Every structure is written in C-alpha cells, then in structure tokens.
Amino acid sequence: YMEGDRKTLVRQIHDAYMKNFTMNKAKARLILTGKTSEPPFIIHDMDTFQLAERTLAAHMVKGDRSESESEVQSEPETPAPVCQELQQREAEARLFHCCQSTSVETVTELTEFAKAMPHFQMLDLNDQVTLLKYAVHEALFTLLASCMNKDGLLVARGRGFITREFLKSLRRPFSDMMEPKFQFATRFNSMDLDDSDLALFVAAIICCGDRPGLVDVPVVERLQESVIQALRHHLLANHPDDTFLFPRLLQKLADLRELVTEHAQLIQEIKTLEDTSLHPLLQEIYKDMY
Amino acid sequence: LQEKHKILHKLLQNGNTPDEV
Do A285 and B2 touch (CB under 8 A)? Predict the structure, then answer.
C-alpha cells in the first residue's frame, strides 16, 4: 500500500462508518456532556425503566416527539405489593430483550459497514460469514464504549440514559451483564479515540486472519495487514503526542476477546437459568463460537 | 457454514433486516 492508497482506504472506511452507524462517538459525547438541547431520559430504577419502555418505544414507533413527551409526564402505575417481585422479574427479562434488540440492530449495521469496506465483498462468502460471526461482539463492545461514561450508558439512540447502579442492582445473572463492559469502556475511553480512529479499529476487528474456520487465510491476512497499517499511520498522524497508542490499541483486541468469551458464557447461563428466548440471529452467532 | 448462519448470510447477500428474514 502506497501512501495515497492508504489515505483512500482510511477515508473509505471512515465514510462507511459514518454512513452505517446511527450512533457515533461524537454524537454520544455531545449528549453525555449535556451539549444537546434535549437531555436523555434517565432510567435509574424499575419505575423509570417501565416509564421509558412506554415513552421511548412509543417515540421510536410513532416518531412523534410531542406525543411521547406528554406521555413522560404521566404517573407510572403502582404495582400491587404481592405482584411486585413477579413484575420486577418480568421487567428484567424485558430489559434483556431490549439489550438483544440493540445488539441485533448493531449487528445489522456492522454487516453493512463490512460490506462497504474495500475488498470485503470480494472475499469467499463463507469467510465473510466467519469474519462477522467472530467480530460482531468485539465490535459491539467497542462501539458500546462510545455510549458509556462512568455513570451509565446511552440507550434508545441517545434518547435514554440507563445508570450503571441500576444495572448493577438487577438480580443475578442480569446484574453481571454490563459491569465488565463498563470496566472495559473506562480503560478504552481513556485513549481518547475519535470516530476516524474507531472506524479503522472496528475494520481491524472484522478483518482478522486467525478466526477459526477461515477458508482463504492469506487473502484475509493481506486485507488485515492493509487495515492495520492504515490504522498505525492514521493514529500517528491523528495523535502525534501519543506514540504508544497503536500498540496499546492492539492490546485491546486481546481484552475484547476475553470480554466476548465471558459474555458468551453469561448468555449461556441466562439461557439455562431463565425462561427466556434468544434472537435467532444471536443464536446463530453464539452457536459453536468458542 | 452458510447453512448454519442463514440470517447472517442473508444480511450479507441482500441486507434484509433480521425481522424480514
């Protein structure tokens, strides 16, 4: 790759990222730092969660801000004490389904992003499937970090903010789901990457030559090498004062694999312990993963 | 592999949303 080609690759990957992901770090940071006109609705307990379910979901379906805002003013129904525990269990299960819906939406965006990456669609179709199968959760947790701060996580396309304490207060195994992601996000966000860096990092996660079962490893490795070199040069240009950023970022790839392995085990545990279903797309991805 | 990952395969082929598959 010559310098001109490399710059074209960086631009194409950044464009693909900005076009295909509805939320990005720049947007998320504006919301998280209170620089938008409308602050997100804060979900900090079961009542505010149930209120958000009605208002934010209604907003997404109707696309009518004024109508959903008027619903925010309404009082939540008070559950009878005898039903409270059952209602809480149901709410936790619904929260798990909300997480699944967001994951499925992001997997769809990631697939479109991969397809828009130069040379990806020229790969063997089986290899495209393999690369996405193993990459989507690593990429998902990377993108999730952009929506997190130490206190919580943006949800519903930035219209809601769910607190870390509330997620920790859920019963096991749901309470164990997000805390490791917050811990990862704190370390990851300290590197101060912007969307152009993240676009290349997500591309590097996807184009990985050591995923199990790849048919044509050398072709994937060549693509990986071009993305990794583009990432290295871009980081040096974009963060001239941080010369160790590239090796630190590569280290995060190992951290992400560990995070995904733990997450897959937890999903397995939830499937075993709880009477809950898993979206067919996520079932495909988890099946025979590690 | 494509047989075991029908939805992922379909998303790669034509970009249908998972609910449409």
Answer: no
